[in-house]
Hints:
The complex is a heterodimer of chains A (481) and B (378).
Chain A: H1 2-7, H2 21-30, E1 36-37, E2 49-50, H3 59-78, H4 84-97, H5 100-114, H6 118-130, H7 139-154, H8 159-167, H9 170-175, H10 187-191, H11 202-211, H12 221-231, E3 269-271, E4 274-276, H13 281-292, H14 294-308, H15 315-328, H16 332-345, H17 354-365, H18 388-394, H19 418-434, H20 441-447, H21 452-459, H22 464-472, H23 475-478
Antiparallel strand pairs in A: 1-2, 3-4
Chain B: H1 4-9, E1 14-18, E2 33-39, H2 45-48, H3 57-60, E3 70-71, E4 77-78, H4 83-90, E5 94-101, H5 109-118, H6 130-137, H7 175-185, H8 187-199, H9 211-222, E6 230-235, H10 250-269, E7 276-282, E8 302-307, E9 316-318, E10 338-339, H11 340-352, H12 356-363, H13 373-377
Parallel strand pairs in B: 2-6, 2-7, 5-9, 5-10
Antiparallel strand pairs in B: 1-6, 3-4, 5-8, 7-8
Helix pairs in contact in B: 7-8, 9-10, 11-12
Amino acid sequence: MLLMHKVGFGLKPDEDMPKDAIGWALAQLANKAPQVGISRFRTGKQQIEPWPEEFIFDLTTRVKTARQLQRELDKLDDDSGLSSGERRRQEQALRQKFQPHAHDQLTFFHQPVFGEDGVRQRFVQFWMNHFTVGANSNSNDYAGDLFQNVMNRDIDGRFADMAYNVTRHPTMLCYLDNIYNIGETSEKAKNNKKQQVGLNDNLGRELMELHTISPAAGYSEDDIRDAAKILAGWGFLFHKKDGARFDRKNKIKDYGDAFVTYHAEPGGKTVLGKTYPNGKKALRLFIDDLAAMPETAAHISRKLCQHFISDNPTDDDVNAVIAAWQRSDGDLPSVHKAVIERAALDISPKMQWPLTWLFTLSRTSGGNLTYGWDDIGGKDPHEGVFRPRLIMRELGQNIWGRRQPDGFALDGASWATPEHMERRIRMASIMHRFGNPQLDANDMLERIDASAMTRDLVASTSDARNKFIFMACSREMMGSV
Amino acid sequence: MITRRQFLQSSAASLALAGFPIHGVTKDLPTGNIVVIILEGGMDGLAAVPPLGDPDLERARKGLISANPITLNPFFGLHPSLGGFARMLNDGEASIVHATAFPYTKRSHFEGQNVIQTGNMTPYASKSGWLGRSLELAGLPGRAYSMDMPLLIRGEAELDNYYPAHLRGSIDPTNMLTDQLSQYHGSIIGDAFTKVGQKHEEKAKFIARDPVSLAKHAGARLSDPLGPSVAVIKVSEFDTHAGQGADTGMHYEQLAEVDDIMIALKSSLGAQFKDTVILTLTEFGRTVKMNGSTGTDHGYGSAGLLAGGLLKGGKVITQWPGLGKRDRFEERDLQSTIDYRSVCAACIEAAFGLDHDLIADKIFYTPKLERVYDHLFA
């Protein structure tokens, strides 16, 4: 039961308690489950349906949508007859019309609660945090594709593949400014005497510092600079204000693989003593090398243990995960299996992120506080029901907002502040009053295998709502010591 | 490009208040207040305070120099976004320290932000902040108002946080709930619930989330002698790797915000402004030259902007290293010739009356830290 909360989102009210917890977890991890959710918030039991195809946006659709929105906004800019109030209203109406990210945020809330791949999604969320992206340029237009299609797919393969696909995804390339990273002796630089162009080392730095080897590997500023040179050319601009005229010369067919030679730095590059050839191939080779370095396995294995097992994982835990990494050459299912097995051995609870707590509370009690996909664009469908964006902001995990690239803290202690505890009481009260949980506090006590102390706490009040709040804030539900 | 309005909606500005005196613990009420404005991302000191008299400026900073700087003296100017700050300089209520930094040179945001808050030059070595430890030394445990308590003010002292919730339809946590939960949990979570209970004994007012409103609120609270003596305001988005601009652009919007914050603080502090020192804090400066995307990358030396009545102000305090290639740190960044920890130490000395040697040893773990108090406050 502890394992189900440590690595998953717990069991729905009608799910049977599995006899083999590890087997259950591994099955969920491997489950390429369909995307599901609800079309509308309903009072009473929610009706779970497959996520509509029309709201699963591929990259090409996202780029076209973003371009169209930009064209419409440009028209507004050109129309000088509008008052500022009217302009604001029209801009808002346009943005409401073109908003893949609203659906992206909703599926992010629905899948853990209504889907059948909770453990898998827990690991996807770990990788979403490891490769943190946030709002910059129009990164949010593409972020859903990164999470749902790239990470949710590559979690079945090798780390090197995920790292490569994430690094060259337009969300990452926008977020860390790589779309403005231009080779100093590139064609663009040579043709642009008026506008200064050159390298931007933001992504190159974070690729090594945060995503792979970490500062423990002792890379130099020159290494970072050459990493930036390898990355120059990856990414596309689409607004003519950014100088997107290159598009005519370099037709992009696959927006997840957009390398623009016009921007690239010619010549070989050297990072950490290894040389890389001119051209597009270099990035794949570079990331393969970074992925293979022992510092990467060490760095990420520790983070995995810190997130899933304990704020202070033992050396045995970390070494077991590193060993699985090295044995399998970074095969993520093998690595994740090691994490799950170690988590099963560790009987101490682990306090999770606020969002994880909320998804678990929702799933296990059968309650729900979010919209359905048909509710998007209208008023709040019901009192106590919120847009995902508001909940994420209130819980301090604004995933689509302005982010620092090092992501959310992995240790539970960082989230154990009075402000976050107050939020839990509030959210539990709303869940009870408006979220229509199918199980009340006493039913939940059975489901979470509550201790005597927790039962006493819940029994100490006769008010149903307060019982629910106590249950939601129990050690078992919060994963706290 | 994100519009300013979109940015403000998702702005990460935050306020934390601390250093409340507590009956039975605090021996003397503090004489002064400290406000730290954390500039997240690396503030470009050369853009904020351009060295107009430096012969290498034009060449080195092509594309990044404002067309209309405010002239402070024959050598230094000020970016036009900092008009309010300029007036304070003129009135002797502000000073600038230039070519200064914490001696951290690895240019990593998250290591840098950790070091400038902990005051420990080894990243992640400390779970408390230099200001938090100062408050402990000064006998001022207290409460903070923000969503996530900044490391800068964490210490062994009882510090919690508060930020009004927007969850309509939710209940206000009752004493019964918080008492029971804090007894049930014990340890840090129990403490957290206790503080939720304590905080709700005060009346919870809605505080707007934009930086200027936060600053006004901070000033009002600081001006209460029984209220907090420390405020920490965080302003983000200084990490302008792309499209920094020279007069307009994100960096200068943020400087304008800092200027607005300073003006708001001065006004809301009222009579207490004379007993206050405000200082900026940033993890590093930025490269002297522009990068490939008309922005700047991470650097080293930067400038510190200080204000408040405690200062003997109107000065630019610096040992100017020069902008020529060989004068720069690693041939790319402004050199740092003043350890910014000394500036922080001087502010603690001025506001709380602690002894410099004690501060150097116990707060910055550097017994030989230079004392620059006289340049700023005497």
